[in-house]
Amino acid sequence: MPTVDAISDLANRFTNDLELCRREDREFEIATELNEIADALSASKDPKIVSVDFQPMYNAVNHHCELYELVDRRTDCVVVRRGGLLSMVVKLNQNVALASAQELKFYFSFGSRPNVEKGTQAHLVVTGKTKIEKPHDDWDIRLVKEAGKKATVEVQIPTDAPVGVWKVAAEVTLRNQAGERHLRRFDTHVYILFNPWNENDGTYLPEEKMRQEYVLSAVGTVFVGSYPHTRGRHWAFGQFDDAVLPACMLLLERSGVSAEARGDPVRMSRALSKMVNSNDDSGLLVGKWDGEYEDGRAPAKWLGSIEILEMYLRTRQSVKYGQCWVFAACLNTICRALGLPCRVVTNFASAHDTNISLSIDEYFDEDGDQIDAADRYVNPAGIRDSIWNFHVWNDVWMSRPDLPDGFGGWQVIDATPQETSDGSYQCGPASHEAIRQGRVDLKYDVPFVLAEVNADVVRWQKDDRAEGGFKKLATQTSSVGRLILTKKAGPVATGGFFKSDREDITWEYKPPEGTRAERVSILNAARRTRTARQVFDMPSEAKEDVTFQIEDRDQVPIGDNFSVTITATNTSSEVRTINVVMTCASMYYTGAKAHTIKRHDGELHLEPSQTKTMSMEVYYSDYYSKLVDHDLIKSIVICNVNETTQCWGGEDNLEVHKPDINIEVLGSAVEGKAVPIKVSFDNPIPLLLKECCLKLDGPGLMRPKTVPLENIAPKGKMNFEMNLYPKKAVEGTLIVQFNSRELCNLTGAKKISVASA
């Protein structure tokens, strides 16, 4: 008897075959009806519109839009950019003489209530003129040529036109004579996008190399890890996939942004930062940070944006789950798809300032033990400030006519739901220059972003005699915003830790750490914020005569042991006794502890001018079962000097390094033909790997795919071969990820050049 799966497969095949037959029937009926209409029109003496050819590929090439799959795969979709010329070929039922015999009009409309005054509707009459005469921010039309029953016209799209799907209708009547009016509405979707190639567009990006990267590049690198040991992970943005633009339109319809406002990159980017999370609306992604992902997919197991956007489009429900790099990568895809230049940015040691004090506040009790929010004392802010190992957001490029001169260019937007802005979980656009100058009075959300990259870390100790119940112990001015990275313009790196394609843009956000200009910037911001003034005006009270240093560890290969070591030096002329607490824990990238790995308490007795060390050994058996996403381990050492009020805390962040996946192309890569590849890696741990699978993605090379694998032996080798079937010549990058119950998030990438047949 057939199994349930066999019956289901058979039913699916029958359903697909039936749908194919019905589609062929519908196409035949439509073709027959069109022929009958054409015959009827030919017999009429009044002018009739037989057809309009929107020339999808011709227009796409002229508008830098030929990579959009909708243009290739759909005959009813046109993708163009504002500020350009849209070419159309109109066929009438009689010879064309638009300057004398017929009057031809076009109607362009956008949104549910099109209105000429609001810029969401245009009425264009073909007068016979052959030149565009109106300014760049107005609609215009010209006649290119007439040939028999066909006329070619070009429409100027305003440089400030709303971005989205426009509808088109055409009308023809006899010129200066009585006759019937013939109106045709077309089902063709005309996608109008931002135009970074046009200097009159608010998104104009001057350099072609930058446009190639920040608008057209479909694969990139998102940097993760912890300072100073950063690494890149590949991401398939896939902004040209046929599911992406429709998903973008659904998000915009749900965003609440009015039709007339969709031409403004400031308001559009702010709305998109809200719609990529689902906290306020039916947005794209549900955020989750607790490690429990059974009813969705773990954020670390996404390879690209296409799968997420297609799932959202199919279900019309928010996709589970995302974290900051997933939010940012998907927002990058959406912005680039709409023509808004965008890049993914990672801030290492990123501050989350909850009370706009421009500081990250750490609280200790009378004995020097750190106070958590759940402990017997509540932090004065009520919510615990934190420093994330890394945080990922986006930069978008635009002019800022709503700000004083000089604040255009790169702007921060952030889709990760952290704090509300104007009542919604949205962030930005915040001008780089405003952040750099400490101009917290300028829109939008400059204080929050400034704190992320340049907050001071302030330590407080419980003291009932102090104002507010806490006294200020010490301030660290260089612990936040240690390194800010993005992928630089050019090829994607495919091996090692991807340092060849990273660009350090820390200087774009703030002057060099410790310089006078950097201090002036943060103090300038503090003067404009009441809560910040209270922190920065209060002096520190700690007496510090013992120096401490925690040993900095590089990446630890999975399976190796490591140690946590502290060195203390007494610089005073008196004896110092130090209580030392050393802890080691696996960490979520937000800086929140996942699992304690090991703890050691001890005491150091230092004579004047004496130096001593203390170490704690951490073995593979201690940590391997406690790792979480990103394989981050944080070692923290807290030292309290008994004879003084000095309290010192140091930390070392390290990443457990896993091997890269090797990808080989075993034959020639030609469009329309099978391309054999081999994927392999060595299992680095002495455990059997179970429930193994490969995830593959490569825009232009293949659609996202998951392949189950057999178990892999302890210290064994994984080899897997398969074929790719690229449909056209392309310079693509294949991204591969391996996951199992015992070993997760092994990745690899390979550049593949597909030649024309």
TrEMBL record:
Q: To which protein family does this belong?
A: Belongs to the transglutaminase superfamily. Transglutaminase family.
Q: Which residues form the Transglutaminase-like domain?
A: 316-417
Q: Which InterPro entries does the UniProt entry name for this protein?
A: Ig-like_fold, Ig_E-set, Papain-like_cys_pep_sf, Transglutaminase, Transglutaminase-like, Transglutaminase-like_sf, Transglutaminase_animal, Transglutaminase_C
Q: What is its EC number?
A: 2.3.2.13
Q: Which residues form the active site?
A: 324, 391, 414
Residue positions annotated to bind Ca(2+) are: 454, 456, 513, 518
Query: What does the record give as cofactor?
Result: Ca(2+)
Reactions catalysed according to its record: L-glutaminyl-[protein] + L-lysyl-[protein] = [protein]-L-lysyl-N(6)-5-L-glutamyl-[protein] + NH4(+)
Q: Which PANTHER family match?
A: HEMOCYTE PROTEIN-GLUTAMINE GAMMA-GLUTAMYLTRANSFERASE-LIKE PROTEIN (PTHR11590:SF40), PROTEIN-GLUTAMINE GAMMA-GLUTAMYLTRANSFERASE (PTHR11590)
Give the protein name, as stated in the record: protein-glutamine gamma-glutamyltransferase
Coiled-coil residue windows: none
* Alphabetical UniProt keywords: Acyltransferase, Calcium, Metal-binding, Transferase
